[in-house]
Amino acid sequence: MHADDHRAIAKRLGLFHQQAEGPGMIFWHPRGFALYRIIEDYIRKRMRQAGFAEVRTPQLLARSLWEASGHWEKFGDNMFALDAGDRTLALKPMNCPGHVQIFNQGLRSYRELPLRFAEFGACHRNEPSGALLGLMRTQAFVQDDAHVFCREDQIEPEVARFCDLLRAIYRDFGFAEFAVGLSTRPERRAGSDDVWDRAEAVLARAAKAAGLEYRLQPGEGAFYGPKLEFVLRDGHGRDWQCGTIQVDFVLPERLDARYLDERNAAQRPVMIHHAVLGSFERFIGMLLEHYGGKLPLWLAPDQIVVASIGEQQADYADRVAGELGAAGFRAISDTRPERLSKKIVDARETAIPILMAVGEREERDGSVTLRRRHGSQEVMSLAAAVEALRPDAFR
After folding, report:
1. What are the backbone dihedrals phi and psi of residue 250, each rounded to the nearest 5 degrees, phi first?
2. Nearest-CA neighbor of 334 among 362, 356, 363, 303?
3. From the first residue on, what is the mean pLDDT of each consecutive set of 10 residues in the chain (395 residues)?
4. Same structural domain for residues 214 and 318?
5. Which range marks the domain in which residue 311 is found?
6. How many whole angstroms separate alpha carbon 62 and alpha carbon 225?
7. Angle formed at CA 22 by CA 59 and CA 231, multiple of 5 degrees
8. Active site residues
9. 0.85 surpassed by pTM
10. Do residues 150 and 94 both lie within one domain?
11. Final residue of a structural domain among 291, 326, 344
């Protein structure tokens, strides 16, 4: 395994492991789950600001629902199913039908549209064992899934606003540019040609209105609708398909979603499927390889290590780490009876971006010697260090 492989990076940094008893599953360690939660909390904040209400849908649903949605015919061979008395249940491979069930509770009015739901949906897919690869291909994964229920004339502005959200999020993760593909009707699909003509035309118009340049990807759409795929390029020049936007006229019809229009007549909503990252696991694997494990300050599980120079400064190091924690930083102290040079090497090996050294002088003056990852260092008060680091430490 190459040193830049995300599995090697994760082992070095103590992020996660896998084992035979959980094929294609992830055992997240404390530092790895800290990274996971940082990303989750960031996406949650962004989605809330974008007007999405977070929901949670069941893991296990009846086969009859998956048959009605069309997923059983398309994905049945890759779904984990079990018999429970006189019915068959299945672990969800995706979240869309559950969101339609929430929409269908109660009589919806056109005044509620667009209605936006978001979920960190835990999904399971029975992938072939030979296809499993660390975080990149798993049998259990979480999607930052979102769905908008809207009228047809609301599709363009909804796609445009989500593209703006994608741009901002990708920029924060260090990806200033992305490529876009427009995937059209596959051979095996649900819905008539007229429905697909409408869906493909409106998505193409929406992409152009959002300022996107895209390449056509014939036959690569979802079985229920065309999609835009957003591809990021990592630090090694490799492309990763992450975000998606899909326009869907099919599932609302199949699952009988309705709303009342201005004349009190029942109408079908359009369903727009959104994801920014796609699979959390896969995105984290890509991030680890993109940065070689040296994550930006705001993403680092441990942002700062406060290292005592002598044993006499152990209490001061702990106190500084505590004050940094109270200010919102993820800080730890290193008060081992080791030389400072050893502590610096260890911080570098565990990819901690900032080291604050504290010795007799720093304790006397209430200061720290701040060392950044690239080697520069500066003596400053703790308050000044907090203000200097804050802009890069939080999103």
Report:
1. -90, -55
2. 356
3. 88 96 96 98 97 97 94 89 92 95 96 97 91 92 97 94 94 92 91 91 92 93 92 87 94 96 96 96 95 97 97 96 97 96 95 97 96 91 96 94
4. no
5. 304-393
6. 24
7. 70
8. 96, 125, 143, 145, 147, 227, 273
9. yes
10. yes
11. 291
